[in-house]
Amino acid sequence: MATKTVQIAPPTQEASGEEKPKSPTKKVPLSTKSLGLSLFFSDSSSSQMDKHKDSREYGMRDSDIIQQSIESTPEQIAANVKLARLQSIFKDADSDGEPGLSMSEFKEALRRTSNKPIDEEEVEKLFMKMDANCDGTLDWEEYVSYNLLEYQEKSQMLEMLKEKPFPKDVKEIKTRHHDNIVRVIYSPHVHKRWTRLDYTNGKYVTVSKDGIVTFWSMGLRLNRIHTIPIPPDRATQPWFVEMCCIYNVNMIALASTDRDIAFYDITAKKFVKRYVITGLENCITTMDYWADLESKSQSVLVWGDTEGCCCGVYFEIQRGSGLFGSLPSKQEGAKRISFAELLKGHYPNIKAFRLAGIHDDWVSKMSYIPEIGCFLSCCQSSTTSLYLGDFLKKKSPAYFKVDKGLFAFDYCPKLNIIATGGMDYIVRIWNPYVNNKCIVLLRGHTKPVVHVVLVGKKHQVVSIDKSKTIRVFDLKDQSCIQHLSGRILSLGPFPISTIFFNPGLQHLVLATNNLGLLESREEDERYTEILSHNKPVSQILYNTIFKVVVSACEESVISVWDIETGEKQMQFVNAHTAMEDGFLTPLEITAMCFDPPLRRLLTGARDGSVKVWNFNVGAVLQEFSMPEASMVTGIICTPTKFYITGWFRYVGVYGDGEDFESFKIWPKKHEEDILCMAHHNPNLIATGGYDGTIIVWLRETGHTYCKLNAHKCDKDNTFIASNYRGDSAETETPVYDHKCDDESRIDSSESTRELDPSPPYILNSSTHQRMASVPKSRNVRFGGLLNQSKMDVEDPAQKDEDRPEHNDPLKPEESFEHPLLVALNSNDDVTGEKKDCHFTRKEYDNLTKNYEAAIEKMLFLETRNYADKDTAVLVASGAEGWVRFWSVAQGGRLLGQFNAAHKADSSVNTMVVDSENRFLITGDTMGVVKVWDIFNYCIRRRITDDASFSRFKKLTKTFPYLKQFSLDGVLNDEKSEILLKRPPPISSNPDETLKEPLILNSFRAHTKAIANLEYINDRQLIITASADCAIRLWTVCGKYIGTFGERWKQLPRIIKASAIKRTIPKDIRRCGSAKTMRVLNGGKIPYWSKAVAMVKQRGFARLKAQFDYLQDKDDLGSLVMKAKEEDDSSNILGKRYQRQVRHKMPPILPKILETPNSIAVYHTLPFADLSPIDITQATAHLDEASQKRCMASMKDHHKRDRKGDSPIGLVGHYNQVVHKSMGGTKHLAPSNRVKKVVSRHTKASVNTSPEADDRSTSTSSPIHPIDMSSPQPTTGRNNTKLKFPVIE
Q: Which segments show compositional bias classed as Basic residues (predicted)?
């Protein structure tokens, strides 16, 4: 495939033969503004610069330019003059006579033309941006092309970054209206203390022509429906044409074709007609209402009719009364008010006005404007299109004339402008004090504009035409920022009859016979999450020259970010595209790199295409594709060649700036897809495949240098295992020895987790002996490190037989679990039941070798000696979270490995190291970032104990995590669990190679997988890019600075973590662990610290006074006295002050520590042994005495009766009631207390069983009155038989 070279400069206007579209008059200043060379190019200057770009005559005079532009406008002539002057300055700056300006000549030209001092660094950056071909010189063509392309790309970027106020989809709400909805209003819940309307607490009300009134919640959920009944004097229902809300008295006003206005009370769930204004001459077409909530002294109701008249009623609302006096009662019905009487002033505190002949046609809309004390009305007439007037005639009226009239208007008090829409498809913006000419014309509609809304908060205009097309215009640059076609609005066949815009929620409600809701995308900043891209981020790079971050996402969008402020400088879309099903589809960018001078950007996509960019202006310099249309996964750029690899399993070489004939292919050595690529200066390139194979190539020749694979131990790589069996004294014990010579390999205890808690970084002798006693057979068993790390915390003198047995994964009875083991098990039954769920270590290793061995990321440690066999220079990470350190000398071998994943099922996708190879930073699929100390990991180096200990102290001050969590000296439970679930392969010799460097930091940076990492060496900052569409900036110690896309404060030259404000991303705040929160808070626990301090201050003294075991017995009385003195004394008057009391206060006792809604728990409670108590039975004498006492009280009550009563008295009445109940007479309801008692005892005696007591009579026998002289005692509680005596 031939190489395609793209010219930086765009085609001129003459070459293209097409007229360039006009842009808005407001322009974006160029980046050279700070250097005194900014040009605000207008349309004419841009076209003239295109014409003069190819000209080589620098001596053009101003008169020549003016002569050539006689027919041009004055703006074009001025632009031509400026361009000619700039061209002459450019020519004069060329002092050596060669074409173009050098760096020094460019600086000298800027000094002569700029009156301000210039920054040398900024000038060099600007020169490198303009020098597109990187030849060290800047000619006129490159200068002009840079300005044009930068302006073009920035204009497109600003156009794309403009906020879309509404979503594309309309939420449709079905209604029960059978006809068009004539009006949608908002009824707020008005409080008597409120001075303004609250648009977040209320309800919506809709009415249709057929008289159906519907109430809706704020979320447009149906609350209730009312149907207006047909008037008794009519056979059919009139049409309802208008409605408005009388919000200060909680009413709505409805106008119908009966030429009246009915007022309905909607308090709570009412819908009652209260007033009716009758006697209107014409039918109402529009209404509006306003009330003064601040002073509550005035309200205005205005309306327009079919004759073009404007009417208004001014109310003076008083407390306790309605609009027209007191409210009518239910019997009276609705109170009827004649409009003629209102005009004559028959009602106190009410003034009515009628202005006839205001318009020549129906009044389309009318609204009262309290800010200017006037009303606005419009009609479809060319002469009286818009009227601004006052009923009180305090201000002179004015007409705004528009051809063919107006349908709608809106006034914005914040901007003090009027927006109108009419038959000519144009939206006009007016100054209310200038009526002869509009301010702005907004075009774009193809049908008459019927609805207009001004959004003053965002400086926008929302307009709707008859075809249901919605357009949103930005008033700042007078352009359309959003267009919603009427075809996507599924609101039925009816046109949009009315709308309502909620300024509080920024929601737009549309109405036909159904409702449509366009919810604003504006959300509360407290809950919104800042995103850098709209799609998951795939690649990021940091440019050290221009101090920018370049990122790419799956939507094929490349963005350039300023590291100082976090703002986006440049963005170009559709970097890689392909035709799929007849549509141009953006392709995901899968690989990215800079050229050695860091001036150009190379990108590769999943279709095999590669492009070379000038990323400062977004111009393509070179483009080519790989023969196989497969994903590009790695790109390396050298001064003369490009090395490209991917899923096509080989390395392709292109010449920089050459055609396809220079393309070469290296031998195909990989059996699986290549996933990553790394470069080591000057002559090594490494490629990693899906099967875990790493091949190191010689860059100049393309020959294989070595081949590495941790999952294979064949005959070709037998030396890997033999060298790590302890045959060499240099590699027998990877610990620091005081007596070792300079040639010995030293893995200091600083870089391993095989640490003893005291002192740091120094292994004790017992650990040294146990590590030396590791068996050195060929079949090495895994688990040595785990067992050893557990033995480090045991007693060295403990016997082997007393130690607990540890699991050995090589034992036959030990089973391994992996999701793929179960999925690929061939012993599964047809029914889906597993016959055997135990898998051996060999089966597990075969699985990881075939499916879990992918190399996701590789990098070279540039500061290390790659020719040393005992020094690891290649780091590889990938599946299951394993990070392995390889030596490439003498065929290569594995020197160390550890698991850097946060959980067992995650993998390490990306890594990065600092320039000095001290820190290794890893990111996994759970969004966790970890920082490892690799300064002395797998390296031949001599270091003293004092230097090691001092370095550890410095790291402890830098990393809060190291101070809080990394001093345990052994592997934690999580790491042990990961190693048990995902052990390393046996072929990697884990007993010798499995060792973990010291972890310095660990925190969760994203909620999804981290795609890429970058490290800024001069400021010690970490840049993370994730699949959650966010790119974030952190300090190396874990302090959060910000997310790219939001603006933060200018970063200082030297960043101190203590000076950064403590902030946490919102998504991490929701799901972050306690360790992550502590790291992000700088090692502090702010909320727990306050709680602990409060408990210590208030509760500990009470606890000590309450519980004896917390204090000495001798101090108990003193503590109680001290607590009493603190309560009674005064800090101002002294300890001798005593509080005055009106009564004796109870003694102060220690308060019980209680928890709400829980049972109080006591440590001890005093008690005494229980002693038996004799229970005496009630005797017959006690029953007899009780009965006598009761009869005596009844006699005393009878004596107190009046003398004129019947002699029967209470006793006779008692006997009559008893005889009536026994003789079977009709039972009368008791009328007093005695009757109630008798009735209750009679029922009890009848229903009692005869077996209850032998002393009682049978229930079947009648009850006879007995004499008081022979009372019968009753026994028992529930089985008692009663006989009622006759009282004499």
A: 1233-1243
